[in-house]
Specification:
Radius of gyration of chain A: 34 Å
Largest sheet of chain A: 8 strands, mixed
Shape of chain A: elongated
Helix content of chain A: 40-55%
Largest interface: A-B, 59 and 59 residues
Distance between the termini of chain A: 36 Å
Oligomer: homodimer
Number of helices of chain A: 37
Strand order of the largest sheet of chain A: 12-22-21-14-15-16-17-13
């Protein structure tokens, strides 16, 4: 049998057989557009007669140095003849000419990336014939010039401006503003001019022969597959380069044949809300482009019911059938030519996050799709939308048009926020207390900025990357944030910031969008989507039925724990105890503990801190009644709790200069005293200072060095647990030892701590179910997890640190520096701090889980790094067989969905 | 058959059969001492009759709550009776009493750790009989009191001082200074007093019954196995606790029976030089203890030839036989009783490093042992001895006695040095040029101190650890160094250092011993062992025949390369190009390159540097003619080449204060200009500053960020290679890209660099054999070595950095801090920066080699971290199948030996 390069729309069964492998293969062979047209034809929807030249033909053409495969052109002519029979028109016939369009269509939609030529078949003769036939000369010559124009730009790559300038000149000459005011004669003359342009650029005459037009258009579409635009798009979208494009040849139909003609677009459901009713726009006596171009005011689709009731009823019916057939909301284009409805295209409809959720859930309830399909149809990003305030799209567009886009940075924490600018944490807190919405702006943030960040509505920094302190805290607390705006110049002294000429003073309003990283001048309105949305709740419940991974949360405060629980968290995977030490009434005690050399003073300070910690933990346990709570013992290096070294040096320098200028003895004495105190602190800071604090005295190393501190923390945990247990709360504390790299650290530290736990339980005369575990955040810990597993009941991957040590990258330094460069240049495929690096970090996790469970089959394995809320990483965690992922409260719903996706994708 | 608990010395065949498994098993059963006594007896050497109670008996006794195993005591009595028959004496007989000693003896020598009781069998009656028999009442009662004293301290743990005080009192009463002046009567009375003391402490009488003495002494030796001293010793020496000790009961013989009696010690070869002649000391008419105690002046063993020629000839003959038999230099104890020679002990003799080498080599040439055995008998530490100047032991002892020990720190680089103290690099260099020996003293060192360190004879710092900059550089250049003397207070301003009250001013003399970490006041004499020692050369040549691992060296300069080659290096495994940038004439260009923002200025600076680098490389290639040279591209972060950040801040602060005090306008202007320049540098330093520079912009990241720099380096490498190749040198350059963590880094960087290499070769019109490779110093690189192996011909483990990232430890911070604590507390068994951590870093290396070679079977795998010179680590490298180890020139001979050991130990 001869190789089949061309399939008529009524040959879809043949195409299916030929392609093998079901609908996906047909789409691969005929492209999305061609396949859907043929499909509509099959189910009895009226589609203008036509055919599709396959992607295979395209690939052979391109591979063979742009020569059509043998037999292809003959098949195309044969298919064209079949159309002539179906339509009763004839290609190139001057009395009753057949016009066709030539459209590209690849397997995956690449909007605007490839080319289309309309009105093929027009030449001077057929144009005249058409004019007679339609009685609308102006429309015909408009169509004709469009053919020449499209042909010119598509086939010979003449810049479109070259043609548009001619039209502009014509408008000017006529003294009219709009193309609509140009006459048939004008278009005729423009067409002539276009042909001259064509000849000049293409060094050949515009082909009068319709067959040659068709041939050249087919070739042009084939070639467009390798056009720069298309290649770039595929690179960006991750579409393979070897798919090729199909070419669909479709009989032209016209919606501008009179008042019984129309053209329009419609969707089977509301794309914004997801409600189940047809939405769309149309125009009577118009062409498809007119609807999109917005030259004339379109009408709501419902009006068609009155204007052309038969066509409307048929459209309604067809749309229902299409949706049922494709099992997905459809977006169609149609044309009514003299009362006859033609469907020109159908495809899956675009929709908002809200609509996506509602449509997926509704379709399950309508019996159209399964729960699993519904869960897979909603993306984690769409769920994220429900969790944060958003700017209205129109507002943002307007602001940009008005020149109010101030800056663009890293979109590190989603959601929208507006407020007055405050340049320090205390002021942010004060203004927030006064009821003002605040955006806190800093070069970068430190732990002692957290109170201001909590009070603010949004956070903006000029330094730092995706896992900078600002980004981490912002995500943790669901605060919209934009960081790393390197162009931003912040003058803390004079209290203003600027980019180039634009200056924003403290107290002035800005708005920032954590979704896009954009910062606007002034106040943009926000709205808050409803997380309790009943469709979302239903969908997430289905996700819970499907997923194998537990979803826990990282939470340090009862309010966060409660929120996470409302969002569906099944435990706390990480409570960072050190955050508690930064609060105003606690920090002095903690600093005292660090500053003293006397064991008695240290113990005294710890005694002061104990009740605070106990209260913190009691709150968490109460909020998580019945669920496990993992509390990590202190982790950061102690110098983080003291003033910054360079700041101290600068302050001292200032004081020493001021003393030179001081007038009175009293002034001098005061300054001297101040200097002495600062020097005392400086000495300690210098003692604690490390070249590479990330790899220094922190985590379990601190616990082994100053056991008093971790012993106090364990006492607080168990006193709290005993206390709330007596109040009837069911409590499962799990104590997590951070940063172990050798099993001996664990052995010793656990021993000391468990002893204290037992003492407390004996004192309180109550038994608590508890576990001890460790964070795996050092490569060596992962490599020796079998040794560790003998001494712990659980391990939890701290993938932030693990990524740093596995890559040898300091994230704070790198994300503001070379890492961005690496991502731009594609040296790294993903930011490893956003998505777990499978080959390196993932491999270590695999080793740890496998080795650990071999020794201790019940070993609970979780993840509590930032990655716990990232869908790709959740997929990996599922594959590795982790017990749970733990993420910030705001990502819990996302993680529930992503975990379900992971389970479903594995099934496949 | 009854279980055998006791073996007579003449039952060694039986013991061998019983133990099974050869001589090692016999030593296990009878202990080293018992086995050797039996062995001597077998080969016809006269050993006083005796027997050994087995280690098995000891273990059963200890396990059974201190009850003798069934039949043991009966066997002991039977063996005693056999002795009585052999000696003709009778245990407890007052006329001709048999006396025995009871000696502990475990499989491995534990000197002084367990107990011995002499003269068992004495009581009031037998003492009288002995006195009659010997006619030496004083000797008998001295022996008697010794029995009571040893019995008291060994059996009932009465502190020895209790007894010694009695003797002191007696001396005082008699008005004599020495025990030798006490009479028989004195000793008799002292013996009585001892018995009273015994009764008071032990709550029982001293046992008069010899059988009871024997029984209790046997038990005491058994129990001593679990004494605290013995347990501690075994823990420290890594001896298992379940071996148990044997008990040897030996007939007492006496060298103090007159002028035909004598006692002495001797070695078969000279323990200092290894020369082959008997060495030893003896005393006529004396007891063994007298020889050791040094109360009387001993005679050279050769004198015995004249005094007791028969005994001497026999001794000579026996010693030859023993050496032949044991195939090792022997150290013996002997006693001559009335002309009859008795051998009391033989064991392997202690020796110096020099002697160890010579003896091992001589024994091969004498046909006594194989080359393999000889190689195994010399330790890497003994080879190290040959490579550094040493202090005379006597000199050091004297200095300590005279109170001149100034400080103790970390012994980071072996060898001894003396010189005048210089507190900065420039002064050190100047004084050294003036011909003064210098010890450079700094709180810690930085790259710009290197010229001073090179000029100095030794280095002393108060901060930093085993892999601090000072330690690394010192080892690299073989400079003796002591670092981390935390008690040392260095006043750079006033140019002195002090510990407590002791002050050393700049220019005063000190001596430091890098072997022990001791620092002395004043000048101690040194001597330099001969590395060209012919025996050592022979031994190392044998090691070369045996080893599988290549031994390469880390060298940056031709002079080091030449030295390493003299020491046997087979290539350069690491040349650190950045060291070259610190030299005085180059640093300004390099700093200019860093400071500028203009590409043209940067290129200009690089052009200035190119000839320097080319010259460096040409020198290395010439020195290594015919051998491979691995050159690592720039690795450290750029800020290391600029002034220190905190120093700059302090200097600026000072300048700003000085400006307040400045008098003239000219002064102010000058200061202002100075401030402006410093601020300019400060800005760049702050731009380059990183939180964790170890994990920051360095290695290949620099190469990708500023390709100009690495391209210049590659050009210099290939220009140099082409140049020397034309001069007839055979050159194998290997370009090493540092700090890769992702294969894409390698792919891109290699591409850029290889292109430059090809350009140079085309320009020079000559082809060079070259390789490209990468350092594996990041866990991710090891985990993905299969990916890397597609783009490189070699990999080299940078185990310093790999250890840091695998452990999450910053060595500079940790070795001055918690790591020491970890080692003291045994949390880490070894310093992972000294010996490769097998379970973590070793595992990663294993993964990398296995995966890498799977993809690229010819992959050259080496190690160039500090560990490359550590014997334990070399063993691991051998097991992993590396191609070579690379270490500092001074460790090349050590590595050659250690690599041979690794190969031999694997064979076993």
């Amino acid at each position: 049998m001869e190789k089949k390069w061309v399939f008529r729309f009524d040959e879809v069964e043949l195409a299916e057989k030929y392609a093998g492998g079901g609908w996906d293969a047909v789409r691969g062979l005929l492209g999305g557009k061609g396949a859907n047209l043929a499909q509509m034809n099959r189910i009895g929807v009226s589609v203008p007669p036509g055919f599709t030249v396959t992607t295979e033909a395209c690939n052979v053409y391109l591979a063979a140095d742009e020569i059509f495969p043998e037999g292809m052109w003959e098949q195309e002519i044969a298919a064209l003849e079949a159309i002539e029979v179906q339509t009763g028109k004839k290609f190139g016939d001057k009395d009753n000419p057949l016009l066709v369009s030539c459209r590209s269509g690849a397997k995956f939609s690449m909007p605007g990336m490839m080319d289309t030529v309309l009105n093929i078949g027009l030449n001077d003769e057929t144009a005249e014939g058409m004019a007679k036939l339609t009685g609308d000369e102006r429309f015909v010559y408009d169509s004709y010039r469009r053919l020449v124009q499209m042909f010119g730009s598509v086939v010979t790559e003449i810049p479109d401006e070259t043609f548009e300038e001619v039209i502009q000149a014509a408008r000017a000459e006529r003294g009219v503003k709009s193309d609509a005011d140009l006459t048939a004669e004008d278009w005729k003359s423009i067409t002539s001019t276009f042909k001259v342009i064509f000849r000049q650029h293409a060094h050949q005459n515009f082909p009068d022969d319709p067959m040659q037009q068709l041939r050249m258009a087919t070739e042009a579409v084939f070639k467009s597959w390798n056009g720069k635009r298309a290649v770039d798009y595929r690179n960006a979208a991750g579409i393979p380069h070897d798919l090729g494009t199909a070419v669909s040849i479709v009989t032209m139909v016209f919606g501008n044949m009179g008042d019984d003609s129309a053209t329009g677009v419609a969707m089977t459901r509301n794309g914004s809300t997801g409600e189940k009713h047809i939405e769309g726009d149309y125009l009577i006596n118009a062409q498809g482009e007119d609807v999109v171009a917005g030259i004339r005011m379109t009408k709501e689709i419902s009006a068609l019911k009155n204007e052309l009731p038969d066509a409307y009823t048929e459209l309604q019916d067809i749309m229902q059938r299409l949706e049922k057939y494709f099992r997905e909301m459809q977006d169609v284009e149609f044309t009514i030519e003299n009362g006859k409805l033609w469907m020109l295209q159908t495809r899956d409809g675009k929709r908002t996050a809200q609509a996506a959720v509602r449509i997926a859930v509704d379709m399950v309830e309508e019996g159209l799709i399964s729960k699993e399909e519904a869960v897979l149809r909603v993306t984690p990003t769409q769920v994220d939308f429900f969790l944060h305030p958003q700017f209205d799209r129109q507002e943002m567009k307007k602001a940009r048009q008005e020149g109010n886009l101030f800056a663009t940075g890293l979109n590190v924490s989603p959601g929208a926020a507006f407020g007055v600018v405050a340049f320090d944490a205390n002021l942010a807190e004060k203004w927030a207390k006064d009821g003002k919405p605040v955006i806190m702006v800093r070069p970068e943030t430190r732990p002692d900025d957290v109170h201001g960040m909590l009070a603010a509505n949004g956070i903006l920094t000029s330094r730092g990357g995706r896992t900078s302190h600002a980004a981490l805290v912002a995500r943790q607390f669901g605060k919209p944030a934009v960081v790393g705006v390197s162009a931003l110049d912040i003058n803390l002294g004079k209290r203003f910031m600027s980019i180039n000429e634009t200056v924003v003073k403290e107290g002035e309003w800005i708005s920032l969008d954590g979704n896009t990283g954009k910062v606007f001048l002034g106040e943009l309105k926000t709205f808050i989507p409803d997380i309790k949305d009943k469709w979302l709740m239903k969908l997430l419940a289905w996700a819970d039925e499907i997923r194998k991974l537990g979803v826990w949360t990282n939470a340090d405060y009862p309010v966060d724990a409660q929120r996470a629980r409302d969002y569906g968290a099944e435990g706390i995977g990480l409570c960072r105890t050190e955050h508690m030490f930064f609060e105003a009434e606690r920090l002095p005690h903690f600093q005292k503990m660090i500053m003293t050399d006397l064991p008695s003073e240290r113990r005294e300070a710890l005694d002061e801190l104990l009740p605070f910690q106990r209260e913190d933990f009691a709150g968490l346990f109460t909020a998580m009644d019945g669920l496990p709570v993992i509390i990590r013992l202190i982790d950061p290096p102690l110098h983080e709790f003291l003033p910054n070294h360079v700041d101290l040096l600068r302050e001292l320098s200032d004081l020493k200069i001021r003393i030179k200028e001081a007038g009175t003895l009293a002034d001098i004495n005061e300054l001297l005293q101040n200097i002495r105190e600062k020097e005392r602190i400086l000495r300690r800071v210098e003692m604690l200072r490390e070249e590479n604090p990330m790899l220094g005295l922190r985590g379990v190393r601190l616990g082994l060095h100053f056991p008093d501190l971790t012993v106090m923390q364990v006492r607080a945990i168990f006193e709290a647990a005993c206390q709330v247990a007596k109040e009837g709360i069911t409590v499962y504390p799990e104590v997590m030892i951070p940063l172990t790299s050798h099993v001996n650290e664990l052995k010793i530290q656990r021993d000391v701590l468990e002893r204290e736990a037992k003492i407390v339980m004996a004192e309180q005369n109550i038994r608590i179910n508890y576990k001890f575990g460790t964070m795996i955040e050092i490569p060596r810990a992962a490599l020796t997890a079998d040794q560790m597993a003998e001494y712990v009941e659980f391990i939890s991957f701290g993938t932030n640190d693990l990524t740093q040590t596995t890559f040898g990258i300091s994230r704070d330094d790198a994300e503001a520096g070379f890492l961005l460069d690496y991502l731009h240049r594609g040296i790294l495929p993903d930011n490893p701090f956003a998505t777990i690096d499978r080959d390196g970090v993932g491999r270590l996790m695999d080793i740890a889980v496998t080795k650990g469970r071999k020794v201790n089959p019940k070993l609970e394995c979780g993840i509590c790094g930032e990655h716990g809320g990232d869908p790709k990483s959740i997929r990996l965690c599922h594959e590795l067989g982790l017990t749970y992922v733990s993420c910030s409260p705001f990502r819990v719903p996302i993680a529930r969905l992503a975990a379900a996706h992971a389970a479903l994708k594995e099934k496949k």
